[in-house]
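[job 0412] stage=complex_fold ligand=FNR status=START
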Amino acid sequence: MASEPVNVNEFQELARQALPKMYYDFYTGGAEDQHTLKENVAAFRRIMLRPRVLVDVSRIDMSTTILGCKISAPIMIAPTAMHQLAHPEGEVATARAAAACNTIMILSNMSTCTVEEVASSCNAVRFFQLYVLKRRDISAQIVHRVEKNGYKAIVLTVDTPRLGRREADIKNRMVAPQLRNFEGLLSTEVDTDEGSNLEALAEGIFDTSLSWEDIGWLKSITNLPILIKGVLTHENARKAVEVGVAGIVVSNHGARQLDYTPATISVLEEVVHAVGGRVPVLFDGGVRRGTDVFKALALGAQAVLVGRPVVYGLAANGERGVRRVIEMLKDEFELTMALSGCPRVKDITRSHVTTEFDKLR
Ligand code: FNR
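[job 0412] stage=complex_fold status=DONE, emitting structure tokens
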């Protein structure tokens, strides 16, 4: 590495240097005009902090508990597809970094290492992200493997009946490799010369008919808690609680699905109010600083998930790179807690931030 990065944003350039353009563009891009992509980050910058002074901050405790799993800080690893395109060790390296940082990794359904390989490579607490396939029998088999291999929750992604239009992938004719979780079950290699192979893959295998009633089906095939990922409105948050999910992830899929959805941080509070503490609310989209983690918690999230920076860390320096990304965010978050007068996570409250909407209240 040229010079050691001092913040997680600096890993992006290292990833750019390390990766073929097709893969870098795949990891970094968003949908269509990428308006939401910019907003996810920009909206954090419009939130200001309201620190309290003369609080004893000689000991800072960042630890928290998510669905019964104790972790060192409320910073988790978001599910992102195909880590072996970033680094030969793929998701195994990411999981080892999660274990070293004592946090939770959410393994993507579209991973390049199998559920079993990731489980046996380390003792990280793992959740599994699921896309429901047209072939429900294959989804059910995968869920059973996930359960058997000690994953602690299913994170059902609900914002992807079809893939968003990612124009760089279309231009680059992004190619999807055979995804190993589906080996022997389903071919994920798509043979088309036009546009993004990933888009064609999703169209071929994802169940576009998936609806609220199907949460019942998923519950009937697993005893694991089910979180749903991709909620942006109070209407859907209420519905999710009604159908009995164990948690909600406020997410716009890192702005890769529907462009012109709001920045996730600007709708977090709406969802948190609708949920009213009945289930935990997790958050992702644009978290790049410890102050972002603090802001999301002040607005009611129990923890944040980090997507692209983890992949950039992996591309730049494998397991060590991912570890550095998580450690940097943890260090910055700890400092933010100290300088805000919040020695414990539960000391972080709504009154520690002001948002652009507060003036309108
Ligand atoms: C994703 N995301 C995603 N989500 C999911 O549920 N299943 C998946 O397989 C993927 N794959 C994926 C690949 C890449 C390259 C990216 C960047 C994102 C979305 C991811 O879980 C998360 O919602 C966002 O990445 C969070 O935003 P940031 O942290 O990237 O800004």
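The pocket of FNR is lined by residues 27, 40, 78-81, 108, 110, 129, 157, 229, 251, 253-254, 256, 284-287, 306-308, 311 (CB under 6 Å).
[job 0412] exit 0
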